C-alpha cells in the first residue's frame, strides 16, 4: 500500500511520451478528431475482428 500512495500523484506516461489521464471525457474525444465513437459490437464494424 505504501507504494500506491507514493505513485498516486505521479503522471503516467506511455512509451510515446503521451500522458495517460485517469479519466477521458467526451470533450477529449471531440478534440482527437476522426475517432470511431461507436461501441464495440455495433455497426459500423470498423474496429476489425482482432480489436
TrEMBL record:
Coiled coil stretches, renumbered: none
Entries under Gene3D superfamilies matching the protein: Methylmalonyl-CoA mutase
Annotated Methylmalonyl-CoA mutase alpha/beta chain catalytic domain residues: 15-51
Residues annotated as transmembrane: none
Pfam families the record matches: MM_CoA_mutase (PF01642)
Stretches the record annotates as Disordered: 30-51
GO molecular function: cobalamin binding; intramolecular transferase activity
Protein name, entry field: Methylmalonyl-CoA mutase alpha/beta chain catalytic domain-containing protein
Biological classification of the source: unclassified sequences, metagenomes, ecological metagenomes
